[in-house]
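Appendix B, Record 12. Input sequence as logged:
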Amino acid sequence: MLKLNRQLVSVLSLGLLFPHPALSETVGGVSATANPVANSSGSVTNQAVQVLQGPYITNTYGGGVQCQGPTMNFTPFVTASASAQKPFEPFFDDPVYDVTDNFGAFDDDGRPIGDGILDNPGDILFTKRTRTGQKDNYSLGVGFSITWSRPLDTKLQNLCKQAAQSQIELTQQVVSSKRLEFEIARLKNCGDLMLKGIQFSPRSPYYKICQDVLVNNPPGHVHAISSGPSSKPE
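Logged structural output:
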């Protein structure tokens, strides 16, 4: 009896060391072992708007004087995207298969029972209408961007403005001097021509050049009168 008990213990030990694999249930001869699989899919669309900052606005005043002022850039933009699936199917017919298993084996009383194999494999009992969830996607983006740029060194900006103002005044003085020289030359030439009796015709388009010139106290004309020998009456 002791030897039998030792053998029994040995068998139990082997059973614990080498456990038998558990057989999962089958449906229609296909193993139904749990084998979860997670699938994920997606798409990402990146849309970007690039803002290009332009250079500072440069003003030139002559004499090599150039000043740069603050600059504001206004950039409007419009973005749009569309995605669709063709053909568009809002619903589909989902088949429901016949999974009955009522025959193929017998119980102890001789009554037919299922044997684990489908009686009508592949047969479709009916179809049910299922939404696909398919939809078209459209997006529209409208906006604008503004950038403001300003020089940081205000001292140099003020010096440049002073130089620009001096250059403007100098230019105006040069223009005034040239204008004065032109008017004096016109006055002199028109006066000399008038003294000589030369002028434009009133119908000439250039008559107005000397129209506002006046000659005051023109020099008188002296004519010599010659007299012959006179005879005294007796």
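DSSP finds two helices and ten strands in the chain.
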